[in-house]
């Protein structure tokens, strides 16, 4: 027995020990569903698809559970140690026990997590781009726009990418580039 009366890592998961942080937010349903599937079909844990899904998990408790399960621990033990009672009940519900094609479900869940991650990344890029534009940091705006385009298309950012995610109203892009991004037309006077 260790100094806290527990044995090894179990001591760290002691629910009677006060937490220094406030109550943690529950994991996202998408991530909890993935762990629920793996709890019902532990053979999937050893697959490349499950490893790919692991890297997409954002909840540290679920990542810890996955890692411990890879090392041979049972979700039956892990869920109550790492999750709230309602989340643990969900993971241990047997919801996917009768699934007809668990590997296909795992692949679909992984694709959903990938899409969520990509969407969140693109949203963060857009927010940073808007902030750079607001501050007038044209070099950063150009770099962020290139990243956003590359992320959307799955390619590498071009070194001379346009600073706009979508075409801006006004003169053609080449006219804005030739004048350093300043609109020199008399369009506003004519309108």
Question: How would you characterize the overall build of this protein?
Answer:
There is one protein chain. The chain is mainly α and 191 residues long. It is 56% helix and 0% strand. It is built from 9 helices and no strands. It has helices spanning 29-40, 48-56, 60-70, 75-82, 85-91, 102-135, 138-153, 173-178, 187-190. The longest helix is centred in the middle third of the chain and has 34 residues, at 102-135. It is elongated and about 55 Å long. The N and C termini lie far apart (82 Å). The model is unreliable at 1-20 and 158-179 (pLDDT under 50).
Question: Features of this protein?
Answer:
single chain, mainly alpha, disordered N terminus
- Sketch the topology as an H/E string, one letter per element: HHHHHHHHH
Number of helices: 9
Label the overall shape: elongated
If you average the pLDDT, what whole number results?
75
Helix proportion:
55-70%
Q: Strand count, sense and closure of the main sheet?
A: none
Kindly provide the radius of gyration, computed on alpha-carbon positions and rounded to a whole number of angstroms.
24 Å
N/C terminus separation:
82 Å
E-strand count? 0
């Amino acid at each position: 027995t260790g100094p806290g009366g527990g044995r090894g890592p179990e001591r760290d998961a002691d629910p009677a020990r006060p937490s220094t942080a406030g109550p943690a937010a529950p994991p996202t349903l998408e991530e909890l569903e993935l762990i629920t599937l793996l709890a019902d079909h532990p053979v999937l844990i050893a697959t490349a698809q499950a490893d790919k899904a692991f890297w997409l998990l954002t909840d540290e408790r679920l990542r810890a559970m996955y890692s411990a399960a890879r090392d041979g621990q049972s979700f039956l033990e892990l869920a109550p140690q790492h999750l709230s009672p309602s989340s643990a009940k969900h993971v241990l519900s047997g919801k996917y026990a009768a699934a007809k094609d668990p590997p296909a479900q795992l692949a679909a869940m992984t694709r959903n997590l990938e899409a969520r991650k990509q969407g969140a990344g693109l949203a963060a890029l857009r927010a940073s781009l808007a902030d750079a534009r607001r501050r007038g940091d044209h070099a950063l705006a150009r770099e962020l726009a290139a990243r956003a385009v590359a992320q959307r298309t799955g390619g590498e950012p071009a070194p001379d990418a346009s600073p706009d995610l979508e075409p801006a109203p006004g003169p053609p892009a080449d006219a804005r580039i030739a004048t350093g991004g300043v609109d020199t037309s008399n369009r506003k006077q004519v309108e």
